[in-house]
Amino acid sequence: MKTIVSVMLGATLLAAAPAWSQVTVDQPWVRGTVAAQKVTGAFMTLTAAKNSRLVAVSSPVAGTVEVHEMKMVDDVMRMRQIPVLELPAGKPVALTPGGYHLMLFQLKQQLKDGDKVPLVLEIEDAAKVRSSIKVEAVVKPLNAPAHAGH
Questions:
Q1: In this model, does residue 99 exceed pLDDT 70?
Q2: Which DSSP category does 50 fall into?
Q3: Which CATH number characterizes residue 47's domain?
């Protein structure tokens, strides 16, 4: 009996472990493309249970996925890749058009309204432990407004 309880307790702890370091992903979406388009953006809100960082992203529909930020520099809006995105504990970090966002490059196919795009987010916690979060982002029309995920 003791063995069964230990095994059950161990299984419960293992199942709960990812939740301790997990980042919540809210309303992920990707902007649709036209046939020859090779680049698009992905957007969502990330909320970490403890201080973490988004360190990498991948998707089977893109050759490369990068984390980018847009900000005003000398009265000009500039976009640049950033190496990591800080996710402070308990504070939602919005990935939106015109702010932090994901850029999908070298698209392997057209992304049409209603399609699902798989993304894998690599999260690193303060102890440098990495975990992966699989996300399915819905494709919204090419002309979707900035708040399309809401």
A1: yes
A2: S
A3: 2.60.40.1890
